[in-house]
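User: I would dearly like some help making sense of a protein record. This is the protein in question:
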Amino acid sequence: MPPEPPPMPADADSPALPVGPAFSPLYQQIKALLVKSLQDGEWKPGEAIPSELELAARFRVSQGTVRKAIDELATENLLVRRQGKGTFVATHAEEKIQYRFLRLTSDDGEATGWERHFLDCRRMRAPAEVSRALGLKAGEPALLLRRTLGREGVPVVLDEIWLPAGPFKGLTAERLAQYAGPMYGLFETEFGVRMIRAEEKIRAVAADAVSAGLLQVAPGYPLLSVERLSRTYGDQAVELRRGLYNTASHYYRNELS
């Protein structure tokens, strides 16, 4: 069979092909177009995207090419397939997704059911290393959030979270505390910022006086330090999180493949 021709916009309103190397596989080009539609908000979190047949007609490619692109986006947790219902934009409000960046599990295997307590939310000038990580310009403000996560009244995690102030205008500790769903769910529904991937640095540290008091352990107690940089579409960094974990009755879980 002759090779499938490059995808063509179905009409003048269809998205243009992404700029990239000529050898980029066709399904990767379709994947890039789908990601652009997600980034532009054409389909909101939780909404169904068009069927494979509709997308194939839109981009003038085969259904198999569209399926392969969607398969990768589902693997990356950007889309969710639901048997007999279609394919939907993933949302952090979904139980199986909302904790996917938190890899701490109790010794009894429970990974959910966290109790949140927000300590403060301040707008301030970020330290130089935070500005570099988030790509902020000199003097550009940031938000600093501090909270604890725990179970049955016992704090297990102390989080220091830095966010660029611009995309999160109006975010307060009170607003965070009043939101019943996961914090990332609030970010995507009310601020239009969706965390799609993250990278972490992990090391062992000793609790200082402040963290020891908030985590109810003795100063010098061994903790797990997890620094996470979360990114949205376009590989843009939008969160720097520094967490201290008490692993006395919890462990850090990861899956390798």
Strands lie at 79-82, 86-89, 104-106, 115-125, 141-151, 154-164, 197-206, 222-232, 236-245, 250-252. The chain is about 25% helix and 30% strand. The first strand starts at residue 79 and ends at 82. The CA atoms of residues 79 and 89 lie 5 Å apart.
